[in-house]
Amino acid sequence: MAESAADAELLAAAAVALNRNGEVLRDVGAVFADAGHELYLVGGSVRDVLLGRPLTDLDFTTDARPEQMQKILRGWADALWDTGIDFGTLGVGKGDYRLEITTFRADTYDQVSRNPEVRFGDNLHDDLVRRDFTANAMAIRITGDGPGEFHDPLGGLAALRARMLDTPSAPQVSFGDDPLRMLRAARFVSQLQFGVAPRVLEALLEMAQQLDRITVERVAAELDKLLLGADPVAGIDLMVQTGLGEVVLPEVGAMRMAIDEHHQHKDVYWHSLTVLKQAIDLEDDGPDLVLRWAALLHDIGKPATRKHESDGGVSFHHHEVVGAKMTRKRMRALKYSKQMVDDVSQLVYLHLRFHGYGDGRWTDSAVRRYVTDAGPLLPQLHKLVRADCTTRNKRRAARLQANYDDLERRIAELAEKEDLARVRPDLDGNEIMRILSIPAGPEVGQAWRFLKELRLDRGPMDHDEAVGELLKWWNSRERPGV
User: Fold this and answer.
1) Total domain count for the chain?
2) Where in this chain does the entry annotate a coiled-coil region (predicted)?
3) pTM
């Protein structure tokens, strides 16, 4: 088919971008050509270079079998990684580049198990047909002269122009082969800001429950990529509307049932997506996965705590406490790290604390506790609280933001006088044991916690004052047998 002017322009721009990596492409192309094998740049690498996106990965496919690749590359590569060798994939280090080269695949699936029966293919076309979406099913021949012939047997370039996700084969077949591709569709909606073809949408609605076949580790990896994309709101909404969310993140879709207490939004679900979008707008150092997860989940406790009040209003008392527990449970089920679970659930727990600030009526003690409870998450808590203001009442929104400006100012003022990042008792454990003449044990911990609470209430004390308060507390305690 004749190449359109728009296609020619895309391909010319891609060629310019690829030439920035020309040396490594020519070198690896020559190595395979000299050994009598074909080599193609493929998949996301081709898609991204055509879209003008940064080329972060160099993914290739070849007719060479894994053991042949090892022999071909051993003298050329700086390093080889064979962790994916059973699936025909070899990782290659060359200078600053990391390449991934995979033998043509022609896998078969039983539509039940989670993993394919790995079968190597003999030609490029069969390899491209088995890929997830047509936009990822294009290839560029790589030889000793660098990038060469462009291969697009499945209409991937047209899909890019239309910004549309479609499958090379019938979507029911493609998703049945690997149900994770359904979640990947939502991820690409977020990352690439594409839509989905009508037949793909139909298959998602029909087959969502098959995501149960996928391990939670693979699911979590896709969810993270989705949330780190350019438009995670669109990706999340596709998940929820198709039923994918009910399988992997049911708490989010459940928020559609709860009207928020201000009656300013369609429901808590859309409020949460708005908070996610606004949190992203506040990021100042690249995508923040912890902040994005916390923004998405901050109100998941509302459906469980919704109460219709006698005056006709709706309340969600302690939804932050319930939401933090729900967040912890869901993220543990998805096998996130302990640190990730702790950080996201703590932000969910703390996100409502500021609303007790009023018009600056917090004591210094309350400000210290706010900072101490947030710990290193304080910058993210600042952003989450600001993002959580979605009211359409401009006067109320301005007042909330002004109040938070005031809180941040007070935090800064206290931080100039004392180390708020490390609020500790004015006496350490060794001093406590010496002053009270007690050995190490539970009583030392109790004394330490008393002094920590006193430090939060009063701020820094001099040594004599701290000793006096410790002795006063110790002598007033009720002790067994006394």
Assistant:
1) 4
2) 390-424
3) 0.84
